[in-house]
Design brief:
With about 260 residues, the chain is of the alpha+beta class. The chain is about 35% helix and about 15% strand. The chain has helices at about 15-20, 30-35, 60-65, 75-85, 110-120, 120-130, 135-140, 165-175, 185-195, 245-255; strands spanning about 5-10, 25, 45, 55-60, 195-200, 205-210, 225-230. β3 (about 45) and β4 (about 55-60) form a beta hairpin. α4 packs across α6. The longest helix has 12 residues, at about 165-175.
């Protein structure tokens, strides 16, 4: 099946020059997304749908910074947990501990798909405890993830010292897109499947929104990938495609809400 890709990193840092061998085109008009929201940020788009990759950026200087990955870390963290055997598959149930948290969706049993979609931090904290910091560190080194640090308060991907640039985020997504990360293809395909939030006849949108605090959603989205398929490809029936709440969240992100 012919598939073309559009990669975006919104409200995250990025420098694409080294990844593409070219300088991203500046898009100062995109500043209005942040002005309308009274916010600061950067947007980078990498479009691989044509024969020649194309990239554009708003706020280039800010795009070069390494910042906390927050909930976007759930993309590689899911791979770590699957590879370590902490998670068997997308159907395994992680039972709620009965502690009421400020995000209602967290106060229930979860599986890998719901934990990823709801950014259920307590589930991923459990993965971290089972794997241990030494193993987490080894996985970070294995995929060269940002500064590869597990130092600082837990969870280290939110309140600790772990940091990654959007250039590195894009590199990670490109490798995952091609099943080139050092994990089984089955696990890479599974993680891509749980990332799906919406699909049409000839496209699939995969995303992970950003959560920068344990008690509140502060950033509407982190990294996005749009996959364009052949026009005759059938619509995928997964329930995530009908997740209108997720679509609304992404619409607000694109509007700078």
């Amino acid at each position: 099946m012919n598939r073309r890709y559009l990669l975006l990193s919104a409200l995250s840092p990025l420098l694409l020059s080294s990844a593409l061998g070219r300088t991203p085109e500046p898009r100062p008009a995109w500043a209005r997304f942040f002005q309308d929201a009274d916010a600061q940020g950067t947007i980078v788009v990498l479009d691989e749908r044509g024969a020649t990759p194309w990239a554009a950026v708003h706020a280039r200087e800010r795009a070069g910074q390494r910042l906390s990955p927050a909930s976007t870390f759930k993309i590689p963290h899911s791979l770590f947990a699957l590879d370590a055997g902490v998670v068997r598959d997308e159907f395994q149930t992680f039972h709620w501990d009965g502690k009421h948290r400020s995000v209602p969706a967290w106060n229930a049993d979860q599986d890998l798909r719901s934990a990823f979609r709801n950014s259920a931090v307590w589930v991923y904290e459990g993965f971290a405890r089972e794997m241990g910091l030494a193993r987490e560190q080894a996985y970070l080194h294995k995929i060269r993830y940002g500064n590869q640090s597990v130092a600082g308060p837990m969870p280290f991907w939110v309140d600790g010292e772990l940091a990654i640039s959007a250039e590195e985020q894009i590199a990670l997504l490109r490798a995952l897109q091609r099943n080139e990360l050092p994990f089984s293809i089955a696990h890479q395909r599974l993680v891509k499947d749980i990332m799906v939030v919406e699909a049409g006849r000839d496209w699939i949108l995969r995303a992970k929104r950003l959560v920068d605090r344990l008690d509140r959603v502060a950033c509407r989205c982190g990294v996005l990938r749009v996959e364009h398929r052949h026009a005759r490809a059938p619509r995928r029936p997964a329930q995530a495609h009908r997740d209108h709440a997720a679509r609304a969240e992404l619409d607000r992100c694109a509007a700078g809400a």
